[in-house]
Automatic annotation (TrEMBL):
Keywords: Endoplasmic reticulum, Membrane, Transmembrane, Transmembrane helix. Residues 218-246 are annotated as: Disordered. GO terms for biological process: response to stress. The chain crosses the membrane at residues 16-35, 55-78, 99-132, 152-176. It is a multi-pass membrane protein. It is found in: Endoplasmic reticulum membrane. The lineage of its organism: Eukaryota, Metazoa, Ecdysozoa, Arthropoda, Hexapoda. InterPro entries: DER1 (IPR007599), Rhomboid-like_sf (IPR035952). This is Derlin. It holds the Pfam family DER1. It comes from Drosophila busckii. It comes from the Eukaryota. GO terms for cellular component: endoplasmic reticulum membrane.
Length: 246
């Protein structure tokens, strides 16, 4: 498969994310965009209202000879785990995946402002990877030097490596952000019987309509442990069971 065919095979929002990240990072690397206007700064956002930094810090990575390999690893994770999540879990509802990216991006910005992190690519990549890993806990993934382990451990391995070698909390914050989404989207409503707080707004559904047909749902949300609804005393047959799952 040539590069053009591979690029076009990426699902829509993964392709947009990868393109924006690579393009903006390269433009800053070659001095065509000023890096000093791209990073996240709590003071500049809150006191000088430089709100664009909340967006640019999600896509710009400070490329250099020392950070190039790290950047390529992040891009690889985007093409692997974001693509898998979008294709498998959200193939029929691209607006749901768009909403996932928006929520994790907002959480990344908040985390960056709290922990004074300038660039948010690591945090966003780990959050998306964490969500995929939670939906595919038992899948065995390959890592460096031929090591293999269950997907549920992958985000923690990434966070440990970053903490040890770079002294950064970004991946740990990314795990927290990913878990917030996973808990509110899957665990709380489906496993614990709570309200669905992360339903995709209809505005996004109209902007990016659902896709009919296709195959989705390879990632498996947790099974419900909520108590079954009581049967109505007025009907000897109880309540019918709806076919399929939302």
């Amino acid at each position: 498969m040539d590069a053009g065919t591979w690029y076009k095979s990426l699902p829509r929002f993964t392709r947009y994310w990868l393109t924006a990240t690579v393009a903006l990072s390269l433009l800053c690397r070659f001095g065509l965009l000023p890096l000093e206007y791209m990073y996240l700064s709590r003071d500049l956002v809150l006191t000088r209202l430089q709100l664009w930094r909340c967006v640019t810090s999600l896509f710009v990575f400070p490329l250099s000879g020392a950070t190039g390999f790290h950047f390529l690893i992040n891009c690889y994770f985007i093409t692997q785990y974001s693509a898998r999540l979008e294709k498998d879990q959200y193939a029929r509802s691209p607006a749901d995946y768009m909403y996932l990216l928006i929520i994790t991006a907002v959480l990344a910005v908040l985390g960056g402002m709290v922990f004074n992190l300038y660039f948010l690519m690591d945090m966003l990549v780990v959050a998306i990877t964490y969500i995929w890993c939670q939906l595919n806990k038992e899948v065995v993934v390959s890592f460096w030097f031929g090591s293999r382990f269950k997907a549920m451990y992958l985000p923690w391995v990434l966070a440990g490596i970053e903490l040890i070698f770079h002294g950064s909390l970004a991946s740990l914050v990314g795990i927290f952000n990913g878990h917030v989404y996973y808990f509110l989207k899957f665990q709380y409503p489906q496993e614990l019987g709570g309200n669905a707080f992360l339903e995709t707004p209809q505005m996004l559904k109209r902007l990016v309509p659902d896709v009919s047909g296709g195959i989705s749902g390879f990632g498996v949300p947790p099974e419900s442990r909520a108590p079954p609804p009581r049967q109505s005393a007025s009907s000897p047959w109880g309540r019918g069971m709806a076919l399929g799952r939302n």
